[in-house]
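Hi C.,

You asked whether I'd gotten around to modeling the 157-residue construct. I have! Everything is below, sequence then structure, no commentary in between.
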Amino acid sequence: MLAAAGSRVCLARLLAGGQLQVPLLRPAARGIPAPAASSSSAQDRSPGAGSSAEKIYKIPGKYRPSKFDKKILMWTGRFKTEEEIPSRISPEMLDFARNKARVKTCYIMIGLTIIACFAVIASARRTEHHESLTSWNLAKKAKWREEAAILAESKTK
C-alpha cells in the first residue's frame, strides 16, 4: 500500500513537470531488495581488484589436493592412479568426489549395520531359552563373589 502511494506521488510530480524525487521509504523497507552495487566503476576495473577477488573466491584449478584428497579421487573413480591426478584441481571436482565418497561410506555403514543385526539375531537364537542376559550377569557376579571369598580365605590362613 505504501509503495503504491509513494509511486503515485512520484508519478504525479513527474507529470506536473516537477523533478523526480526518491520516495522517503527505502527499497528494502518496501519489500523490494536493494540493488547491488554495479561493477562498472573505475575502481573495480583496477588491476588490484582482480587479485583481491582471487583471495576471496576459489578460482578453478587453484586447489592443491592432499594425499587423502588423492585417495578420495581414486576411490570415487575420478582417476585410475595417483599419477593421473593433476597438481592443481578445481574445488568443484573435489567437492563432487567428497560427496560421492560420503554416499559410498554411508552405504557401506548401512550394509555393516544390517550384517551386525543378523549376527545379533543369530547369536541370540543359539542361547538356551531359559537363559537371559540378567540371569547370565547374576551368575557371573556370583562366581566372582565365590572366587573373592576363596581368595580371602586363603589369605587369612
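If it helps when you're writing up: DSSP finds five helices and no strands in the chain.

Thanks,
B.
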